[in-house]
Amino acid sequence: MNWNRKDLITIQDLQPEEIVHILDTALTFEEVGHRDVKKVPALRGKTLVNLFIEPSTRTRTSFELAAHRLSADIVNITATASSITKGETLKDTALNLQALHADIIVIRHSSAGAAKFLADRLDVSVINAGDGAHEHPTQALLDAFTIRQKKGRIAGLNVTILGDILYSRVARSNIHLLTKLGARVTLAGPSTLVPRVFEQLGCRVCYNVEEAIADADVINLLRIQHERQRQTMFPSIGEYASIFGLTKERFAHTKPDALIMHPGPINRGVEIDSDLADCKRSVILQQVSHGLSVRMAVLYLCAGAQPAEEAA
Ligand code: CP
Predict the structure, then answer these.
(1) Alpha-carbon span 245 to 249, nearest angstrom
(2) Residue 130 Cα, ligand 1 centroid: separation in angstroms?
(3) Burial of 156 by CB count in 10 Å (0-12 exposed, 13-18 middle, 19+ buried)?
(4) Threshold 0.85, pTM exceeds
(5) Of ligand 1's atoms, which has the minimum distance to the CA of residue 60?
(6) Whole-Å CA distances, 249 to 212, 218, 219
(7) CA max distance for the chain
(8) Do residues 174 and 154 touch, judged by C-beta distance below 8 A?
(9) pLDDT of residue 233 exceeding 90
(10) What gap in Å lies between CA 263 and CA 157, rounded to an integer?
(11) What is the mean pLDDT of residues 4-30?
């Protein structure tokens, strides 16, 4: 298919065939990571700016490595080391980066809509690396890539997302992606964090963890997003862990081939038993690895270049 988007802002915007095209393009880049020289010339001469106004380990690093692997030049900017601390607006910051001939701006911001705000005002490509509790499209894409690699398909699978759904951009992007590609999505957690309104997105809402995970092919765990909560949503972390955490006892009653996923950062002993995070059915670190190929594909497609087979 012909890719004609300069930006990646949401999964909600994408057609199912566009999602599949990104995943297929990522697959062509997987092999690059196994070479001695992990580099292709696809984006030589292009400049990527990582504009991270919120902390990140996985997303920022993998966008940087992805850009290096595509031979792009890369600059990292954090809020504390930028003139945003002197009162410069996000728009002015971005316009200055564009004036410095950036070709791609990857933005993470605490405000929902920040990436779209820039994409509407800039000529350069804008990639959303997480905007508030709204969307985290490349996380959902790397999650889908991992599911496809491990299960061979997405359509028809039962995927349970367990945890703080309300404040999670990962949950929203995953819900859109998985339902578009034909998975059955169950959302589980405390009722304060999993309001029934999510049923309108085509999901099942379930407040009993054992029931929510019994038929799951994939269990995607989310941490509590304390940084976005403005009120207490449950009595205590201990109570949350005992009622909603994925324990060995609960996991023993799931399908024998159910996968454990988590976007990270994980909170061991809260949403997931520490041993389960490291067990054979956990693909948490494989998700991180796949993030590289997926982000290479997104940068490559949005920045525009030759067909992926030639680039790889
Ligand atoms: N999953 C994720 O977005 O992790 P970081 O916050 O470390 O980027």
Answers:
(1) 10
(2) 9
(3) exposed
(4) yes
(5) 8
(6) 14, 17, 15
(7) 57
(8) no
(9) no
(10) 19
(11) 97
